[in-house]
Amino acid sequence: MDKKKILIPVIFAAAIGLFLQFIYFPKVSQARQLSLEYRKIKMEINELYNFIGGEDKLKDSMITMRNHTAELEQAFLSEKEASNTIKQLNEKAVEFKVNVISMKPGDLINYTDIHGSQLKILDQPCKSMPINLSLEGRYQSIGDFLDKIELDKKPLISVMKIELKKDQNLSPKIKAEVGLNACILGE
Hints:
alpha+beta; 4 helices; rod-shaped
């Protein structure tokens, strides 16, 4: 009888041990992993909503983001389209009644970050194309022309320097030497 009294608790303890070892602990571990994964996914969704603008405005925000991306793609021309930049500058100059005396595009220069690594936009290397312009026109016309270039963003061009020279023979017009920088995506 003593063997039965000892054997029953031992079998019961062994059954509980097997249950804990092969069923309970694996399920607890799996539940913990699923809980962590759920929190991570929930956090990523919340970050996405914060970035886009909330769940209720998801459609409108996605359309806005798509339009913004399309504008960025238009802002950065490819190397093949670099000559279009020169054409667009000439067309804008005519629009503002500014005479382009000369236009000298420079060699493409790679943009790099503070570590010296090549900057990439849309997985393409970003380059700078310096352009030197000699212009002739009225103060207001030249100012409006340069303002339009910088604000247009299609393509992305910035005015780096401007040097104005007044010539009595051209009065009321002036001559201007302008240094521009166009952003180009290379290959």
